[in-house]
Input
Amino acid sequence: MAKIKAEPFAFPVKHDELALIVIDMQRDFAEPGGFGASLGNDVSRITRIVPDVKRLIQGFRNAGLPVIHTMECHRPDLSDLPPAKRDRGNPSLRIGDEGPMGRILISGEPGTAILPELAPVKGEVVIEKPGKGAFYATELGTVLQEKGIRQLVFAGVTTEVCVQTTMREANDRGYECLLAEEATESYFPEFKAAAIAMIRAQGAIVGWTAHVDDILESIADA
Output
């Protein structure tokens, strides 16, 4: 069995059961004027990982392995947005309000779109998720089952929220999870470091972490 150099120990990879999940690389989280910036965050921390995320996506495409994208967003009528979620954050600019890139985190709005550099290509699955985890109220589990996927490589943002939440959901469902360290980021560097430590603690209690180059080297041989 092939292995990817990883922490806390090598990840035993099965290429025919492997997929990449790119979490929420959306304009609203990465561009000036978006929802992330409205909360006072330095969005340049997000954009700096774009080249590594792009390399990872291209590597999976070249190897003929599935790439799945997620977007955090809600229905235009807000019927899938709990008041407890809407009432948090910046009181002057909330989910569903008009922002510089359309209604914030609403399906179909310009700011909700994935960054152009990382845009899905024909045939790639895009999951619109109303929660932090990508399995909640979505078809992700069915998609993975139909494709015979049991191992997941994760990239995207933010490390400690939507990425870690989805990894924990996947872990509980029996998936083996690997986080690409340079292809994920937080607005807060200490939060990313803490999330990585939690994920791979106690013998990969949630999953493994690895460098992008080591992942790409492995899937090139798939």
Q: What stands out?
A: The mean pLDDT is 96.
